[in-house]
Amino acid sequence: MTLYIRRESSKLWKRFCSEITTEIGLLAENWKYLLAGIICQYIHGLAAKGVHYIHRAGPTLQDLGFFLLPELGQERSYISETVFTSVFVSFFLWTFHPFILKSKKIYTVLIWCRVLAFLVACQFLRVITFYSTQLPGPNYHCREGSKISRLPWPKTALEVLQINPHGVMYGCGDLIFSSHMIFTLVFVLTYQKYGTKRFIKLFGWLTAVVQSLLIIASRKHYTVDVVVAWYTVNLVVFCLDKKLPELPDRTTVLLPVVSKDRTKEENHKLLNGNGVDPADWRPRAQVNGKIDSNGVHTDNSMNGA
């Protein structure tokens, strides 16, 4: 048992080190895109804080979802955030699964470049919409009489550049459309394309529906905020996915090209498993029978063997 654990631990460590080397190379090539995406997240946070300065509390607008779903109230408002946090953490951990699991279909750096591109595009549209028209927040802390329904004007330039640490829970004015649904739907759509477990895909869509209902029930957003998010995020992801370069297929097997001009000594080294020129490696699928130098499969029965 101890020997088995040691052997598996050794394999896991080698796989982890190999993955680290690969991801560092990808990070060196794509760090600008990741940095730009992270900076845009910061700008989005500042924009959400900025609209809180000009938010005006008022009567809650008439909303169909509010009639159908009872309000969770301040005591149970954590339920919606708990579900969202679970979705975020689960997706984050999944993007790093190639470091420890054998099933490797994605590269962590490349998948986050893609996810951030989706998020930035959706958040750009979101900022335009909630600055175009400010609606009175439906949440308890945004209603008339609440002391935090409107932020006091900043006193220093540094205060303007600071992200409100309580903005996710106590923001007001950044309504159309829901940021929580942007993240949830982008994560679900990404796993839908690159994930491998069908039941997780179905569970992800079910969670997105439950998250939508909880957002309305907790009065974080109006129903229109959630509805607009559903079709906007799906359309943005659909359009961008056609424009962005596709992720490389990690399932491709690399086999050496055996040239007719290769010397007997080089062929002997190749048969013994020794290294050859990396330039002679190219992707090729493994099939039964023989594979000629052009990668064409030949069946023995057809050659009279």
TrEMBL record:
Q: How does this protein sit in the membrane? A: Multi-pass membrane protein
Where mainly found?
Answer: membrane
Q: Where located?
A: Membrane
Keywords per UniProt: Lipid metabolism, Membrane, Sphingolipid metabolism, Transferase, Transmembrane, Transmembrane helix
Q: Which residues form the Sphingomyelin synthase-like domain?
A: 171-238
User: What's an example of a GO molecular-function annotation for this chain?
Assistant: inositol phosphoceramide synthase activity
* Annotated transmembrane regions: 78-97, 109-131, 168-191
- The question of whether Magnesium is a record keyword is answered with no
* Entry annotated with the keyword Methyltransferase: no
Its BP terms in the Gene Ontology are: ceramide biosynthetic process; defense response
Please state which protein family the record places this protein in. Belongs to the sphingomyelin synthase family.
Provide the protein name: Sphingomyelin synthase-like domain-containing protein
Q: Which organism is it from?
A: Arabis alpina
